[in-house]
Amino acid sequence: MAVNFLYPDYEVTRNYDKCIACRACERQCANEVHEYLADANKMVCDDAKCVNCHRCVSLCPTRALKIVKSGNTYKENTNWSGKTINELYRQAGSGGVLLSSMGNPENYPVYFDKILLNASQVTNPSIDPLREPMETRVFLGAKPQYIKRDGDGRIKNNLPPQLSLSMPVMFSAMSYGSISYNAHESLARAAEALGILYNTGEGGLHEDFYRYGGNTVVQVASGRFGVHQEYLNSGAAIEIKMGQGAKPGIGGHLPGTKIVGDISRTRMIPEGSDAISPAPHHDIYSIEDLRQLVYSLKEVTDYKKPVIVKIAAVHNVAAIASGIARSGADIIAIDGFRGGTGAAPTRIRDHVGIPIELALAGVDRRLREEGIRDHVSIVVGGSIRSSADIVKAVALGADCVYIASAALLALGCHLCRSCHAGKCNWGIATQVPELVKRLNPEIGYKRLVNLLTAWQHEIKEMMGGMGINSIESLRGNRLMLRGVGLNEKELEILGIKHAGE
Amino acid sequence: MKRVYVNEKWCLGCHLCEYYCAFAGTNEKDMARALKDIKINPKIKIEEKDGVSFAVSCRHCREPLCVKGCITGALTISDGVITIDRDKCVSCYTCILSCPFGAVSPSDDGAVQKCELCVKTTAGTPACVKGCPNGAIVFEERG
Question: How high is the ipTM of this complex?
């Protein structure tokens, strides 16, 4: 095309005083940005191909590279931003739906950043977690509603199946197919080492990973890929995926080009066929239908595994959660609008759903008001970025959080948001063998273990500061939270006071 | 004894080990200064073909043919590490011909060169091991 409407978003800046022309950048860029000119003994690059994944920057041995925003600008216009104009040009050129990856990057409020934690002073002394025991273990699942006794008056064990986690964190669903074998192995091994759970996503469970079953949540989603009796029984829990925070209301589509070899076998679909997950479960049009699926899954696993129902945080999330709590589900997972994805239509990702903080507070209140909070545990996800987010989520009523973007970041992801291109330079969101091998699980799992070990220390520090020695005592403890810069309505929904009150 | 081992499963063929090796050999502080506009001649080299790649450097054999064949006694083995006395080497290249791994090579200034596990550099741990981004080169005890 003679007219190129799109100027590159980034410029790859090379300091030629530092560049030793080792060509590592060229060899490591799947987007073919860098090129070596042998006659000049010089590296050159094509900025237009750069997705800003930082692989070359991270590997450059002399730190000769950096990536900067290209300064090119349109005439300033707050209504028609450069991004809006570029997206329009792109669609005018392609006629297609815009695709994006990872979480919503737009400028919506992050409520976690407007909530502050308490600490003890003088009275109710704080606790030093290095000297005193501090409990971060949580149990997920329905809790007994009443005490049952046998004929002799002895208490009968009527505890429904529980998940025991060393800390209130699980790796959330990412399918084998959307992420690589090595990424899955890293997550599985880290979950086992940490005493937490990871999640298969809707891609089935690779036969190599059945040995991590005790640390696996197996997912059943609308496409039912890879679901069979052995699969359902291999995990510690089963998750029914009704929705995903990044794309509420729509299904999934893994292109046929990615359905190769092991992925085809694991998903139980022919090689090269598109894996299309429908928007709804075609057998679920009501809470009663959901209940049927919940009990079908419990039946097939002999009532030994908790069933999780995962929904996206949408406008009526509290009422929906109330229905799910009555459907027989043991755990409700709520995914906020900032949750990540391997691919979603940009407009859906950026404009559908609600913040997880508000959804969580609303659901927790509704279930308490209806006296059914103990029927379910609540797990929240959708951009939990740090241990502070976890502590705030627990104080807002969550039993546990799901992390995925944070886990991928630990594995090397730089949030370039190009997963849908399938050429992940970090070996995470790709199935190209020479790219997949860039993620060595031996390194990856240790980085995940490091991250969560660090977070666990921080959680203990924050709890200790509040004078709390068990995470269970923090759950729903909104007095430990204060809002800053929030209006009356926001404070009311969150159920917290403003700082200074 | 700890040796350098290579796992081609994780080798990305990025060739960074070669550059870290060459840099370690200079004992310079700044890599850009040390290697700018220089054609490197490292002691570890990437072999690659048809999507398979791996780094090759001295195996520090228990019964090293290079040491046996050395006509001047320049190559010696002590504590398992095979090192070269550059002053004694007469560049007859017998060692290069006899090494079954191709791990000995001519240097740029007369004597032959080979991996000496960075015992003569300031790197401590062999520089190739430290610099490998994917854990494909390891320095460990394997009996």
Answer: 0.92
